[in-house]
Amino acid sequence: MTDIFVAYAGADREQVALLAKALEADGYSVWWDQSLPPSDQYSAAAQAALAEAKAVLVVWSASSADHTWTLDAAASGRDRRILAPIALDAAPIPLGFRQLDTISFTGWTGDVVGPPFQTLRHRLAALIAGGGAAAVFGLTPPPPAPPKRRLWLIGGVAALAAGLLGAALLLNKGGGGLPLPLPTSQTGSPNLSAAQPGYGLTAEDLAGFGAQDLVRIAISLDGIAAIEDGAARGDPLGLGLSCLAFVYGEGVPRDPQLARTRCQAASAAGSSLGPLMLARLALAQEAGLTQSQAEAFLAQASAAGDPRALTELARSALNADPADPAQAAILARRAADMGHHPAEILYGWMFETGAAGPVSEAEAFAWYDAAAQKAYPPGLTAAARLLQEGRGVPADPARARRMYTEAADRSDGEANYRLALMLARGEGGPAEPAQALARMRAAAAAGYADAPAALAALEAGGTGTAQAAETP
């Protein structure tokens, strides 16, 4: 049984050989050898391997972009929703494949620790585990235990999800607390659409994911044309997703003015995505909107039960002058109860630090772990930190090390930093100095504040320094 079928052009054989060797070292069966002489038997064998493959890895390059066999194999993978595309150079991706999330392997020489191969490794794991179209767009499959979710985007998108409207932290600075008499009767999933969820999205997706990820999932499953058709019909969710598409430039050219029009229509139709994105445009002072309008848009979205807006308003309440931690706790809890990953982290942090009441590290771990169970990188990192330190939960360095590894492989800077320290010290497992250096370099490349100094210490033969918990 073939796990991974590699579609490539013969000119790229040297790099493909490195890829195949690395993937086989991970335990996968890889069908890739195009050096065999063409024959009917070879063609039949290739077609059989392609048909049974659980994932199709297409290697785009100037040589393969017009290679008939590569195009045919890639089309098969795309149509079966098991395609993982990578690019060896800057040559244009063939038409029909450009909207897929293609990993850049430009200049790759066999490094299996750096972001390109780590991203590919997890995307292939998702496809082979049955992640389907979600994995094609950089998503990993859900774990078996809590409620089903599509998991977080790999390779840097998690940072966006952790604070979709991060600039909202500045709202209300210098003012009073946020006057948000939110109706307590609003519970459950956000009112993102007056109609049933569609475009490949589930109710859990609508509550759990960041806005940019929602539209990426919808485009990956139904395409931008279906979203635009829905918007033309006046479907609230279609209008909301179209609003997102033009705000972020997903599937269409980025167009703030058209985004404002679609977002206003989405708001009028009852989609909370409309005011949420109008707030984003206002914070960026785009499409004729001003920063002073952002708070009102966020309040409108939160009144409709959108967890993203609730979370950002909770952050604003914590950062207001004077701060309103009680209101922040109410808002964060409402969003966390909807399964919104960043809200779970924020609410857990409030228990860990006593930001809104008595300190309870056990409660903090429970909320961090809720996000970790859905493979949200900051949740994995926060839960691992308490596990490592034995706070609120019995110490388990080995499990903490595994959780840090999972988050680090999803490009979480703090996880790479903390994992590097554990690897250097042999905590939770054997000491691995070379891996410690590689992980610390990844943390420094991700911009983690204490990583450069720790990297210098590791390079000098030390074991680095510890870092206190960060505010989510």
Q: Which helices and strands, and how do they pair?
A:
Elements: E1 4-7, H1 13-25, E2 30-31, H2 40-52, E3 55-60, H3 68-79, E4 83-87, E5 103-104, H4 115-128, H5 133-136, H6 157-162, H7 203-208, H8 211-222, H9 224-233, H10 236-248, H11 256-269, H12 273-283, H13 294-303, H14 307-319, H15 325-337, H16 341-353, H17 361-372, H18 377-389, H19 397-408, H20 413-425, H21 433-445, H22 451-459
Parallel strand pairs: 1-2, 1-3, 3-4, 4-5
Helix pairs in contact: 8-9, 8-10, 9-10, 10-11, 10-12, 11-12, 12-13, 13-14, 14-15, 15-16, 16-17, 17-18, 18-19, 19-20, 20-21, 21-22
Please give a structural write-up.
With 472 residues, this protein is mostly helical. It folds into 3 domains: 4-136, Toll/interleukin-1 receptor homology (TIR) domain (Rossmann fold), CATH 3.40.50; 160-334, Serine Threonine Protein Phosphatase 5, Tetratricopeptide repeat (Alpha Horseshoe); 360-459, Tetratricopeptide repeat domain (Serine Threonine Protein Phosphatase 5, Tetratricopeptide repeat). The protein has 22 helices and 5 strands. It has helices at 13-25, 40-52, 68-79, 115-128, 133-136, 157-162, 203-208, 211-222, 224-233, 236-248, 256-269, 273-283, 294-303, 307-319, 325-337, 341-353, 361-372, 377-389, 397-408, 413-425, 433-445, 451-459, and strands spanning 4-7, 30-31, 55-60, 83-87, 103-104. The protein has a 5-stranded parallel beta sheet, sandwiched between helices. Helix 1 (13-25) links the parallel strand 1 (4-7) and strand 2. Helix 8 (211-222) packs across helix 10, helix 10 (236-248) packs antiparallel against helix 11 (256-269) and helix 15 crosses helix 16 (341-353). It starts with a strand and ends in a 13-residue tail after the last helix. 51% of the residues are buried.
